[in-house]
Amino acid sequence: MCTECLARRSTGSLRMALTQAWLMLSPIIILCSLCDRGSAEPSSTTWNAALFRPAYQSSEDAADPRNASLANDGNATSCQRTGNGSESWWHVDLLGQMMVESVWITGSDCNNGKGYTLGYFSLNVFTEQPPPDDSGGQVCHNYMLYAENATVNIKCDKTISGRYVRISHLSNTSSICEFKVMVTNNTQFNKYVGWKNSTLEGPVIRSLNTSRLECANHCLSARRAPDPMYCTAFNWVPGTRLCQLMQEDPRIFKSSKLKQSIHGYFYIEDLR
Ligand SMILES: *[C@@H]1O[C@H](CO)[C@@H](O)[C@H](O)[C@H]1NC(C)=O
Ligand SMILES: *[C@@H]1O[C@H](CO)[C@@H](O)[C@H](O)[C@H]1NC(C)=O
Ligand SMILES: *[C@@H]1O[C@H](CO)[C@@H](O)[C@H](O)[C@H]1NC(C)=O
Ligand SMILES: *[C@@H]1O[C@H](CO)[C@@H](O)[C@H](O)[C@H]1NC(C)=O
Ligand SMILES: *[C@@H]1O[C@H](CO)[C@@H](O)[C@H](O)[C@H]1NC(C)=O
Ligand SMILES: *[C@@H]1O[C@H](CO)[C@@H](O)[C@H](O)[C@H]1NC(C)=O
Ligand SMILES: *[C@@H]1O[C@H](CO)[C@@H](O)[C@H](O)[C@H]1NC(C)=O
Ligand SMILES: *[C@@H]1O[C@H](CO)[C@@H](O)[C@H](O)[C@H]1NC(C)=O
Questions:
Q1: Atom of ligand 4 nearest to the CA of 97
Q2: Closest atom of ligand 4 to CA, residue 161
Q3: In the chain, fewer beta carbons within 10 Å around the N or the C end?
Q4: What is the largest CA-CA distance in the chain?
Q5: In this predicted model, what pLDDT tens digit does every residue of 49-97 receive, in sequence order?
Q6: Which listed ligand is nearest to 43 at the C-alpha?
């Protein structure tokens, strides 16, 4: 049902579309909004396109499994960890071709404070799903990070267009606590999945009084740096036009967290 919107995006025209559809036997609603913010907006600021996007790693550390998603959950004290092997990698799917400017990496102290956390690694950007051996990627930068718990801002040697960003040659003592991919593209995403008669209690980052589409717009535009607010979800109440912006990890969101709320709606980013 979002096909029309996606088609419009490829024309590059500045058009918005609001499509709602009821799925049979289900209270789920798809709100397809903001399919193109076009080139009308300035692209001087960057934003982190990696947060809450699907993340993958070459293997789990059997002794101490820590999910790939822990490296891009917005929490710099939860860290991923790959298993042993010199060809270890972690990558994120940005779910769209983006102009990648730089990568921020926060490492951890997982070698008992004895040494560097990330060895000589390479950062590559791919337009297609990357193969295990990194072929077909464009090098953002190769880097040696020694400092424990440090956050480094690695500017790509040039701006690279791509969808997947991979860090490779992770050592078995390395662990990434937060991985941000700063892009210059206008904030963009395709659709929300929603529930009628349901709202999420919060925490609410910002409350507004708007139409539903404006609410979705506000949620998106708040994402751009330097504003630290990263909205992924919102409540909307038609009667009062109440719009409550929230941050939820759409990868692990459970609808059981919703409370019944007559005439209220809850929408969250749809990563499918
Ligand atoms: C960890 O990864 C597995 C498989 O990729 C996934 O099913 C699970 O939900 C993830 N756990 C968290 C907390 O993200
Ligand atoms: C961040 O991760 C740490 C370690 O897993 C956890 O203890 C803490 O509760 C998390 N913080 C938030 C805000 O989820
Ligand atoms: C990694 O490999 C080394 C040597 O092969 C082994 O001693 C060590 O236990 C392995 N570590 C993990 C976490 O599997
Ligand atoms: C990001 O910008 C590039 C270059 O202008 C464009 O090719 C790409 O489609 C844009 N991606 C999104 C998701 O808008
Ligand atoms: C890194 O973080 C760990 C865990 O929070 C802490 O024990 C350690 O002292 C930190 N190391 C440095 C150099 O700050
Ligand atoms: C990491 O791997 C190297 C080479 O396989 C091995 O010598 C070393 O013991 C491993 N370290 C840990 C902490 O597993
Ligand atoms: C939402 O609540 C209204 C009022 O009680 C009710 O008429 C409607 O059927 C409910 N819709 C759903 C999808 O539960
Ligand atoms: C939102 O604005 C409308 C008028 O545009 C008003 O009727 C309504 O009471 C307002 N709701 C809230 C929560 O302020």
A1: 11
A2: 3
A3: C
A4: 59
A5: 999 999 999 988 777 788 999 999 999 888 888 876 667 899 999 999 9
A6: 4
